[in-house]
Amino acid sequence: FSVPDIVKSMAWCGDNICLGIRRDYMIINSVTGALTEVFSSGRIAPPLVVPLPTGELLLGKDNIGVFVDQNGKLIHDGRIIWSDTPASVVVHKPYAVARLPRHVEIRSLRAPSALVQTVVLRDVQKLVQTDNYILASLSNSVYGLLPVPIGAQ
Length: 153
Hints:
single chain, mainly beta, Thrombin, subunit H, 2 domains, four-stranded antiparallel beta sheet, 0% helix, globular, CNH domain-containing protein, CNH_dom, transport, protein transport, Vam6/VPS39/TRAP1
């Protein structure tokens, strides 16, 4: 598929591929090749496309995560408002975990996406989702974040 610029973030979503290009989100249909603009990623952050287990997407717009369907249409179930602009986000249902400049922030995927926990880890380089936990790598160490059911928090 031909795209108008460098792809900074992307994820499969049904028959579509959601692309973060420049400061915009676009949906390309993998069957027809049709390219549709969704919306801007904001003024500060580069585009951030995060696939959800439901088949929907979480798209970053500065410090806000917006839920959209497979076609890029807004879902009215809410949004996630992070305390800062995330460099990356991984999902471990029912949580969204964001890598922020000064800490890792864990929020519920259920509306109103309440803050569940803040883990003070500076300079996290990467977050990786596994089947049972999330790995957070720093310059000289790796931490495992184990999920605890919301009711037991």
